[in-house]
Amino acid sequence: MPISPSPQGGSSSPPQGIGGSGSYPINTSNAVAIASGVTRFIMPGGQGQLSATETLVEGSVPVNGTFKQIEVRVATNANTGDTPFTLRLNNADTVLSVTYGNIETGVKRLATNVTATQGQTYSIEVTTVGAGAIDDMFITLEFEPS
Fold first, then answer.
1. If 0-12 CB within 10 Å is exposed, 13-18 middle and 19+ buried, where does residue 113 land?
2. Distance between CA 57 and CA 51 in Å, rounded?
3. What is this structure's pTM?
């Protein structure tokens, strides 16, 4: 069951059943190309919502918990440099990050715990370096309420 973020710092309600045991996926898909040499922020749970301004696409953590994993699938990558995908909490990078190299595609995942408290903002940052765009991405964050 996904956590529904609300953009622009609004509040969001936990999904039914949250607060019990178990983890919940937060899925994001994006078929919009991200050009080279830019930083973009993606709304967790959104569909193709990109912004150069993080506050326009942030979600709000509805309950205390732990982000446990990030998984990214990239189908199209013409970028000649590294492209990290990073979970951000309160406008700061966390250790949940995976990086795609020169024209690399496929699925990457990293499992490590990042504690989050109710009301913190979160987003996914994508920074492209090099020439060429990256496109057709699917991102999943795993969140476990405490």
1. exposed
2. 7
3. 0.81
41 near 54, Cβ under 8 Å? yes
Buried b (16+ CB within 10 A) or exposed e, 66-105: bbbbbbbebeebebebebbbbbbbeeeebebbbebeeeee
> Based on C-alpha coordinates, what's the Rg of the chain?
14
How far apart CA 5 and CA 28 sit, in angstroms, is: 11
Q: Domain boundaries in the chain?
A: 36-145
User: At 77, which amino acid appears?
Assistant: N
Phi and psi dihedrals of 22, rounded to 5? 110, 160
CATH class of 36-145: mainly beta
Task: Summarize pLDDT for 14-45 with one digit per residue, the tens.
Answer: 333 334 446 667 777 766 778 888 899 988 87
Closest to 124 (Cα-Cα) out of 144, 141, 105, 101 = 141
Reported as a single tens digit per residue, the pLDDT across 79-95 is 888 999 999 999 999 99
Distance CA 5, CA 70 (A): 16
